[in-house]
Protein backbone atom coordinates (compact mmCIF):
# COMPACT_ATOMS: atom_id res chain seq x y z
CA UNK A 1 0.00 0.00 0.00
CA UNK A 2 1.38 3.40 -0.89
CA UNK A 3 1.37 5.72 2.09
CA UNK A 4 -1.70 7.83 1.67
CA UNK A 5 -2.32 10.40 4.37
CA UNK A 6 -1.74 13.21 1.92
CA UNK A 7 -3.07 11.30 -1.03
CA UNK A 8 -3.20 14.51 -3.01
CA UNK A 9 0.58 14.55 -2.96
CA UNK A 10 2.28 13.94 -6.26
CA UNK A 11 4.24 11.09 -4.74
CA UNK A 12 1.59 9.65 -2.48
CA UNK A 13 3.85 10.47 0.46
CA UNK A 14 2.03 10.55 3.77
CA UNK A 15 4.61 12.66 5.42
CA UNK A 16 5.70 15.52 3.25
CA UNK A 17 3.25 18.11 2.02
CA UNK A 18 2.85 18.04 -1.75
CA UNK A 19 6.07 18.92 -3.49
CA UNK A 20 5.61 20.47 -6.89
CA UNK A 21 7.84 19.39 -9.67
CA UNK A 22 9.60 21.62 -12.12
CA UNK A 23 8.32 21.43 -15.66
CA UNK A 24 11.57 19.72 -16.74
CA UNK A 25 10.54 16.44 -15.18
CA UNK A 26 7.47 16.11 -17.35
CA UNK A 27 9.69 15.45 -20.37
CA UNK A 28 11.51 12.57 -18.73
CA UNK A 29 11.08 8.91 -19.62
CA UNK A 30 9.25 8.18 -16.32
CA UNK A 31 7.24 10.85 -14.57
CA UNK A 32 7.85 10.93 -10.83
CA UNK A 33 4.11 10.63 -10.25
CA UNK A 34 3.75 7.66 -12.58
CA UNK A 35 1.90 4.67 -11.20
CA UNK A 36 3.09 2.40 -14.02
CA UNK A 37 4.70 -0.77 -12.69
CA UNK A 38 8.47 -0.77 -12.40
CA UNK A 39 10.30 -4.01 -11.66
CA UNK A 40 13.35 -3.87 -9.41
CA UNK A 41 15.60 -6.58 -7.94
CA UNK A 42 16.24 -6.54 -4.19
CA UNK A 43 19.81 -5.89 -3.10
CA UNK A 44 20.42 -9.41 -1.80
CA UNK A 45 18.30 -12.58 -1.79
CA UNK A 46 16.15 -13.41 1.23
CA UNK A 47 17.39 -16.23 3.44
CA UNK A 48 14.59 -18.40 4.75
CA UNK A 49 13.93 -20.89 7.50
CA UNK A 50 11.11 -23.44 7.17
CA UNK A 51 9.49 -21.60 4.26
CA UNK A 52 9.96 -20.79 0.56
CA UNK A 53 11.32 -17.22 0.36
CA UNK A 54 9.46 -14.61 -1.71
CA UNK A 55 10.79 -13.51 -5.08
CA UNK A 56 13.63 -11.01 -5.16
CA UNK A 57 11.86 -9.25 -8.01
CA UNK A 58 9.79 -6.43 -6.54
CA UNK A 59 7.10 -4.39 -8.22
CA UNK A 60 7.06 -0.69 -7.52
CA UNK A 61 6.24 2.59 -9.27
CA UNK A 62 7.99 5.92 -9.77
CA UNK A 63 5.44 7.46 -7.45
CA UNK A 64 6.12 4.90 -4.72
CA UNK A 65 9.89 5.35 -4.98
CA UNK A 66 9.48 9.11 -4.66
CA UNK A 67 7.23 8.68 -1.64
CA UNK A 68 9.84 6.38 -0.04
CA UNK A 69 12.50 9.02 -0.63
CA UNK A 70 10.30 11.79 0.79
CA UNK A 71 9.30 9.85 3.86
CA UNK A 72 12.76 8.62 4.77
CA UNK A 73 14.31 12.06 4.23
CA UNK A 74 11.69 13.61 6.49
CA UNK A 75 12.29 11.01 9.19
CA UNK A 76 16.05 11.47 9.01
CA UNK A 77 15.64 15.24 9.38
CA UNK A 78 13.19 14.80 12.27
CA UNK A 79 15.60 12.59 14.19
CA UNK A 80 18.54 14.94 13.62
CA UNK A 81 16.39 17.82 14.86
CA UNK A 82 15.42 15.79 17.95
CA UNK A 83 19.12 15.31 18.65
CA UNK A 84 19.64 19.11 18.59
CA UNK A 85 16.59 19.79 20.75
CA UNK A 86 17.84 17.27 23.27
CA UNK A 87 21.25 18.92 23.40
CA UNK A 88 19.50 22.28 23.88
CA UNK A 89 17.69 20.68 26.87
CA UNK A 90 14.27 21.21 25.30
CA UNK A 91 13.79 17.44 25.30
CA UNK A 92 14.48 15.77 28.64
CA UNK A 93 14.57 12.16 29.82
CA UNK A 94 15.06 9.22 27.49
CA UNK A 95 15.30 9.65 23.73
CA UNK A 96 16.22 6.88 21.27
CA UNK A 97 16.70 7.84 17.64
CA UNK A 98 15.91 5.73 14.57
CA UNK A 99 18.13 7.28 11.88
CA UNK A 100 19.62 4.50 9.76
CA UNK A 101 16.66 2.19 10.33
CA UNK A 102 14.06 4.20 8.36
CA UNK A 103 13.60 1.60 5.59
CA UNK A 104 12.11 -0.87 8.08
CA UNK A 105 9.28 1.45 9.15
CA UNK A 106 8.62 2.78 5.63
CA UNK A 107 8.84 -0.56 3.78
CA UNK A 108 6.56 -2.23 6.34
CA UNK A 109 3.94 0.50 6.03
CA UNK A 110 3.97 0.11 2.25
CA UNK A 111 2.87 -3.53 2.60
CA UNK A 112 0.07 -3.14 5.13
CA UNK A 113 -2.95 -1.02 5.99
CA UNK A 114 -4.03 0.87 9.10
CA UNK A 115 -6.24 -2.00 10.25
CA UNK A 116 -3.08 -4.05 10.66
CA UNK A 117 -1.56 -3.32 14.05
CA UNK A 118 2.00 -2.28 14.81
CA UNK A 119 3.64 -2.30 18.21
CA UNK A 120 7.27 -1.54 18.97
CA UNK A 121 9.78 -0.67 21.68
CA UNK A 122 11.06 2.80 22.58
CA UNK A 123 12.68 3.68 19.21
CA UNK A 124 9.27 4.70 18.02
CA UNK A 125 9.19 8.20 16.48
CA UNK A 126 9.33 7.12 12.84
CA UNK A 127 6.85 4.27 13.20
CA UNK A 128 4.41 6.80 14.68
CA UNK A 129 4.80 9.03 11.61
CA UNK A 130 4.21 6.05 9.32
CA UNK A 131 0.98 5.28 11.15
CA UNK A 132 -0.38 8.72 10.36
CA UNK A 133 1.05 10.82 13.18
CA UNK A 134 2.19 14.39 12.51
CA UNK A 135 5.48 16.18 13.07
CA UNK A 136 3.81 18.63 15.47
CA UNK A 137 2.56 15.73 17.60
CA UNK A 138 6.07 14.23 17.56
CA UNK A 139 7.89 17.38 18.67
CA UNK A 140 5.18 18.36 21.16
CA UNK A 141 5.40 14.94 22.78
CA UNK A 142 9.18 15.03 22.83
CA UNK A 143 9.09 18.41 24.56
CA UNK A 144 6.37 17.32 27.01
CA UNK A 145 3.62 19.55 25.58
CA UNK A 146 -0.15 19.13 25.55
CA UNK A 147 -0.34 18.74 21.76
CA UNK A 148 1.84 15.65 21.87
CA UNK A 149 0.44 12.29 20.80
CA UNK A 150 0.34 11.18 24.44
CA UNK A 151 -0.70 14.62 25.69
CA UNK A 152 2.88 15.38 26.64
CA UNK A 153 2.89 12.78 29.39
CA UNK A 154 4.55 9.87 27.60
CA UNK A 155 7.67 11.37 26.06
CA UNK A 156 9.92 9.79 23.47
CA UNK A 157 9.35 6.18 24.51
CA UNK A 158 5.56 6.27 24.69
CA UNK A 159 4.19 7.40 21.37
CA UNK A 160 0.78 5.95 20.59
CA UNK A 161 -1.84 6.25 17.86
CA UNK A 162 -4.58 3.71 18.24
CA UNK A 163 -6.67 5.18 15.41
CA UNK A 164 -3.76 4.43 13.06
CA UNK A 165 -3.28 0.92 14.46
CA UNK A 166 -0.18 1.92 16.44
CA UNK A 167 -0.04 0.50 19.95
CA UNK A 168 3.19 2.14 21.17
CA UNK A 169 5.98 2.89 22.24
CA UNK A 170 7.20 0.55 25.13
CA UNK A 171 10.15 1.10 27.43
CA UNK A 172 10.51 -2.32 28.99
CA UNK A 173 12.65 -4.40 26.66
CA UNK A 174 10.57 -7.20 25.13
CA UNK A 175 7.35 -6.30 26.97
CA UNK A 176 5.65 -5.35 23.72
CA UNK A 177 6.01 -8.90 22.34
CA UNK A 178 3.29 -10.61 24.40
CA UNK A 179 1.14 -7.48 23.93
CA UNK A 180 1.57 -7.76 20.16
CA UNK A 181 0.59 -11.43 20.23
CA UNK A 182 -2.45 -10.37 22.28
CA UNK A 183 -3.40 -7.92 19.53
CA UNK A 184 -3.07 -10.74 16.99
CA UNK A 185 -5.26 -12.91 19.22
CA UNK A 186 -7.89 -10.13 19.15
CA UNK A 187 -7.73 -10.01 15.36
CA UNK A 188 -8.22 -13.76 15.04
CA UNK A 189 -10.98 -13.81 17.68
CA UNK A 190 -12.85 -11.04 15.85
CA UNK A 191 -12.21 -12.75 12.49
CA UNK A 192 -10.49 -9.60 11.18
CA UNK A 193 -8.53 -10.08 7.95
CA UNK A 194 -5.57 -8.32 9.55
CA UNK A 195 -2.25 -9.02 11.23
CA UNK A 196 -0.04 -7.53 13.93
CA UNK A 197 3.59 -6.60 13.38
CA UNK A 198 5.51 -6.70 16.66
CA UNK A 199 8.94 -5.11 16.45
CA UNK A 200 11.75 -5.85 18.89
CA UNK A 201 15.53 -5.52 18.90
CA UNK A 202 18.32 -8.07 18.69
CA UNK A 203 18.89 -7.51 22.44
CA UNK A 204 15.24 -8.24 23.20
CA UNK A 205 15.47 -11.40 21.06
CA UNK A 206 17.26 -13.12 23.93
CA UNK A 207 14.33 -12.67 26.30
CA UNK A 208 12.19 -15.57 27.45
CA UNK A 209 8.91 -13.79 26.84
CA UNK A 210 9.54 -13.85 23.08
CA UNK A 211 9.51 -17.65 23.13
CA UNK A 212 6.52 -17.88 25.45
CA UNK A 213 4.49 -15.54 23.24
CA UNK A 214 5.60 -17.34 20.07
CA UNK A 215 4.56 -20.67 21.53
CA UNK A 216 0.99 -19.51 22.05
CA UNK A 217 0.94 -17.70 18.69
CA UNK A 218 2.00 -20.89 16.89
CA UNK A 219 -0.28 -23.13 18.93
CA UNK A 220 -3.29 -20.99 18.05
CA UNK A 221 -2.15 -19.97 14.52
CA UNK A 222 -2.35 -16.28 15.38
CA UNK A 223 -1.69 -13.69 12.66
CA UNK A 224 1.41 -12.49 14.51
CA UNK A 225 4.50 -11.30 12.67
CA UNK A 226 7.51 -10.91 14.90
CA UNK A 227 9.97 -8.44 13.43
CA UNK A 228 13.46 -8.51 14.90
CA UNK A 229 15.12 -5.20 14.00
CA UNK A 230 18.67 -6.42 14.16
CA UNK A 231 20.79 -3.27 14.41
CA UNK A 232 23.56 -5.49 15.82
CA UNK A 233 23.79 -3.81 19.23
CA UNK A 234 21.76 -3.84 22.43
CA UNK A 235 22.92 -0.64 24.13
CA UNK A 236 26.73 -1.01 24.02
CA UNK A 237 26.74 -4.80 23.65
CA UNK A 238 27.46 -6.25 20.22
CA UNK A 239 25.26 -9.17 19.16
CA UNK A 240 28.19 -11.61 19.15
CA UNK A 241 28.66 -10.97 22.88
CA UNK A 242 25.02 -11.55 23.80
CA UNK A 243 23.59 -14.11 21.36
CA UNK A 244 24.77 -17.72 20.98
CA UNK A 245 23.04 -17.72 17.59
CA UNK A 246 22.65 -14.33 15.91
CA UNK A 247 20.49 -15.97 13.18
CA UNK A 248 17.37 -14.42 14.71
CA UNK A 249 15.14 -15.47 11.81
CA UNK A 250 15.82 -19.12 12.70
CA UNK A 251 15.30 -18.83 16.40
CA UNK A 252 11.55 -19.46 16.19
CA UNK A 253 12.50 -23.13 15.58
CA UNK A 254 9.05 -24.43 14.50
CA UNK A 255 7.99 -20.97 13.25
CA UNK A 256 9.19 -20.01 9.78
CA UNK A 257 11.53 -17.08 9.39
CA UNK A 258 13.02 -14.79 6.79
CA UNK A 259 16.20 -12.74 6.86
CA UNK A 260 15.75 -9.43 5.06
CA UNK A 261 18.07 -6.59 4.09
CA UNK A 262 16.47 -3.99 6.37
CA UNK A 263 18.36 -1.19 4.59
CA UNK A 264 16.51 -1.91 1.34
CA UNK A 265 13.00 -0.48 1.55
CA UNK A 266 11.79 -2.61 -1.38
CA UNK A 267 13.07 -5.82 0.22
CA UNK A 268 11.27 -4.84 3.43
CA UNK A 269 8.05 -4.18 1.53
CA UNK A 270 8.29 -7.52 -0.27
CA UNK A 271 9.00 -9.41 2.96
CA UNK A 272 6.16 -7.75 4.88
CA UNK A 273 3.68 -8.44 2.08
CA UNK A 274 4.78 -12.09 2.10
CA UNK A 275 4.59 -12.22 5.91
CA UNK A 276 1.06 -10.82 6.03
CA UNK A 277 -0.20 -13.40 3.51
CA UNK A 278 1.61 -16.18 5.34
CA UNK A 279 0.41 -15.19 8.82
CA UNK A 280 -3.24 -14.92 7.78
CA UNK A 281 -3.11 -18.46 6.39
CA UNK A 282 -0.63 -20.23 8.64
CA UNK A 283 0.11 -18.30 11.83
CA UNK A 284 3.27 -16.62 13.10
CA UNK A 285 6.54 -15.98 11.33
CA UNK A 286 9.74 -14.14 12.20
CA UNK A 287 11.24 -11.45 9.99
CA UNK A 288 14.81 -10.52 10.82
CA UNK A 289 15.60 -7.08 9.43
CA UNK A 290 19.33 -6.58 9.06
CA UNK A 291 19.68 -2.88 9.82
CA UNK A 292 21.87 -0.31 11.59
CA UNK A 293 21.44 2.67 13.89
CA UNK A 294 23.69 5.63 13.24
CA UNK A 295 23.13 7.29 16.60
CA UNK A 296 24.16 5.77 19.89
CA UNK A 297 21.63 3.71 21.82
CA UNK A 298 20.10 6.79 23.45
CA UNK A 299 21.14 10.39 23.88
CA UNK A 300 23.50 9.51 26.74
CA UNK A 301 25.49 7.18 24.45
CA UNK A 302 27.87 8.77 21.94
CA UNK A 303 27.75 5.42 20.11
CA UNK A 304 31.44 5.32 19.34
CA UNK A 305 33.02 3.49 22.29
CA UNK A 306 31.94 -0.05 21.35
CA UNK A 307 32.16 0.28 17.56
CA UNK A 308 34.54 2.07 15.25
CA UNK A 309 33.81 5.26 13.37
CA UNK A 310 34.88 3.36 10.23
CA UNK A 311 32.12 0.84 10.81
CA UNK A 312 29.51 3.60 11.01
CA UNK A 313 30.78 5.51 7.98
CA UNK A 314 31.12 2.23 6.06
CA UNK A 315 27.41 1.52 6.55
CA UNK A 316 26.54 5.09 5.56
CA UNK A 317 28.52 4.73 2.35
CA UNK A 318 27.55 1.21 1.37
CA UNK A 319 24.07 0.59 2.73
CA UNK A 320 22.26 3.82 3.55
CA UNK A 321 18.53 3.32 2.84
CA UNK A 322 17.96 6.85 1.54
CA UNK A 323 20.98 6.77 -0.76
CA UNK A 324 19.79 3.44 -2.15
CA UNK A 325 16.48 4.97 -3.20
CA UNK A 326 18.22 8.11 -4.49
CA UNK A 327 20.33 5.93 -6.79
CA UNK A 328 17.28 4.01 -8.02
CA UNK A 329 15.36 7.20 -8.75
CA UNK A 330 18.29 8.67 -10.67
CA UNK A 331 19.05 5.43 -12.51
CA UNK A 332 15.44 5.22 -13.73
CA UNK A 333 15.50 8.88 -14.67
CA UNK A 334 12.53 9.61 -12.44
CA UNK A 335 13.95 12.76 -10.89
CA UNK A 336 17.11 14.87 -10.96
CA UNK A 337 19.72 15.40 -8.26
CA UNK A 338 18.56 19.00 -7.92
CA UNK A 339 14.94 17.97 -7.38
CA UNK A 340 15.95 15.44 -4.75
CA UNK A 341 18.00 18.13 -2.98
CA UNK A 342 14.93 20.38 -3.06
CA UNK A 343 12.93 17.65 -1.34
CA UNK A 344 15.57 17.57 1.39
CA UNK A 345 15.31 21.34 1.78
CA UNK A 346 11.53 21.08 1.99
CA UNK A 347 11.82 18.43 4.71
CA UNK A 348 14.09 20.71 6.71
CA UNK A 349 11.53 23.53 6.40
CA UNK A 350 8.65 21.33 7.51
CA UNK A 351 10.56 20.08 10.51
CA UNK A 352 11.49 23.64 11.52
CA UNK A 353 7.88 24.78 11.20
CA UNK A 354 6.66 21.84 13.28
CA UNK A 355 9.19 22.60 16.01
CA UNK A 356 8.09 26.24 16.10
CA UNK A 357 4.44 25.15 16.49
CA UNK A 358 5.30 22.56 19.14
CA UNK A 359 7.13 25.22 21.16
CA UNK A 360 3.92 27.24 21.30
CA UNK A 361 2.05 24.30 22.81
CA UNK A 362 1.54 24.46 26.60
CA UNK A 363 2.82 21.99 29.17
CA UNK A 364 0.05 19.76 30.63
CA UNK A 365 -1.79 21.19 33.66
CA UNK A 366 -0.79 19.78 37.05
CA UNK A 367 -4.45 18.73 37.41
CA UNK A 368 -3.83 16.27 34.55
CA UNK A 369 -1.12 14.44 36.46
CA UNK A 370 -3.26 11.39 37.19
CA UNK A 371 -5.51 11.39 34.11
CA UNK A 372 -5.07 8.59 31.54
CA UNK A 373 -3.23 6.50 34.10
CA UNK A 374 -6.04 4.29 35.34
CA UNK A 375 -9.52 3.70 33.94
CA UNK A 376 -11.86 6.37 35.34
CA UNK A 377 -14.12 5.49 38.23
CA UNK A 378 -12.14 2.55 39.62
CA UNK A 379 -11.50 4.48 42.82
CA UNK A 380 -7.82 3.56 42.76
CA UNK A 381 -5.91 4.89 45.76
CA UNK A 382 -2.39 6.23 45.44
CA UNK A 383 -0.05 6.55 48.42
CA UNK A 384 3.64 6.82 49.23
CA UNK A 385 5.96 3.83 49.28
CA UNK A 386 5.74 3.37 53.08
CA UNK A 387 1.91 3.68 52.94
CA UNK A 388 1.98 6.29 55.71
CA UNK A 389 1.90 9.35 53.48
CA UNK A 390 -1.30 11.08 52.50
CA UNK A 391 -3.50 8.90 50.34
CA UNK A 392 -5.37 10.24 47.30
CA UNK A 393 -8.19 8.64 45.38
CA UNK A 394 -7.51 9.01 41.69
CA UNK A 395 -10.29 10.17 39.36
C1 LIG B 1 13.53 -5.51 30.94
C2 LIG B 1 14.55 -4.45 30.61
N1 LIG B 1 15.86 -4.73 30.80
C3 LIG B 1 16.80 -3.80 30.52
C4 LIG B 1 16.42 -2.56 30.06
C5 LIG B 1 17.49 -1.54 29.69
N2 LIG B 1 17.63 -1.50 28.24
C6 LIG B 1 17.01 -0.55 27.54
S1 LIG B 1 17.28 -0.74 25.91
C7 LIG B 1 18.25 -2.07 26.12
C8 LIG B 1 18.88 -2.75 24.92
C9 LIG B 1 17.93 -3.36 23.96
O1 LIG B 1 18.53 -3.57 22.73
P1 LIG B 1 17.77 -4.05 21.46
O2 LIG B 1 16.66 -4.96 21.85
O3 LIG B 1 18.76 -4.59 20.50
O4 LIG B 1 17.08 -2.74 20.87
P2 LIG B 1 17.75 -1.44 20.21
O5 LIG B 1 17.94 -0.46 21.33
O6 LIG B 1 18.99 -1.84 19.57
O7 LIG B 1 16.73 -0.91 19.25
C10 LIG B 1 18.36 -2.38 27.47
C11 LIG B 1 19.15 -3.49 27.99
C12 LIG B 1 15.05 -2.31 29.89
N3 LIG B 1 14.60 -1.14 29.42
N4 LIG B 1 14.13 -3.28 30.14
MG1 LIG C 1 19.63 -3.70 18.86
UniProtKB/TrEMBL annotation:
Keywords: Oxidoreductase, Pyruvate, Thiamine pyrophosphate
GO molecular-function term, one example from the UniProt record: pyruvate dehydrogenase (acetyl-transferring) activity
InterPro entries registered for this protein in UniProt: DH_E1, PDH_E1_Alpha_Subunit, Pyrv_DH_E1_asu_subgrp-y, THDP-binding
Bias kind Basic and acidic residues: ranges: 307-318
Dehydrogenase E1 component domain: residues covered: 71-366
Top-level enzyme category: oxidoreductase
GO biological process, one term: pyruvate decarboxylation to acetyl-CoA
Pfam families, per database record: E1_dh
Cofactor requirement: thiamine diphosphate
Stretches the record annotates as Disordered: 298-318
Signal peptide, first to last residue: none
Catalytic activity: N(6)-[(R)-lipoyl]-L-lysyl-[protein] + pyruvate + H(+) = N(6)-[(R)-S(8)-acetyldihydrolipoyl]-L-lysyl-[protein] + CO2
NCBIfam families: PDH_E1_alph_y
Entry function: The pyruvate dehydrogenase complex catalyzes the overall conversion of pyruvate to acetyl-CoA and CO(2). It contains multiple copies of three enzymatic components: pyruvate dehydrogenase (E1), dihydrolipoamide acetyltransferase (E2) and lipoamide dehydrogenase (E3).
Subunit and partners: Tetramer of 2 alpha and 2 beta subunits.
Protein name per the record: Pyruvate dehydrogenase E1 component subunit alpha
Organism lineage: Eukaryota, Viridiplantae, Streptophyta, Embryophyta, Tracheophyta
Amino acid sequence: MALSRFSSSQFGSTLLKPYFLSSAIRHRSISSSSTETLTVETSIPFTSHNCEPPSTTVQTTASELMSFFNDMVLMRRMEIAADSLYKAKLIRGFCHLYDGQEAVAVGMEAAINRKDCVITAYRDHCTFLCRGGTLVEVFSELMGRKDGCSKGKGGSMHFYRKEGGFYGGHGIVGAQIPLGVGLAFGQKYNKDPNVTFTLYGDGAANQGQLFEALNIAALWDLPAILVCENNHYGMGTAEWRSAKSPAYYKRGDYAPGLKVDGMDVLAVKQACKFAKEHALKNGPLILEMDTYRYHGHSMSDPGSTYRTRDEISGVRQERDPIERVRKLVLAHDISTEKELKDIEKEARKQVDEAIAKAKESQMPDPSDLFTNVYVKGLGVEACGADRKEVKATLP
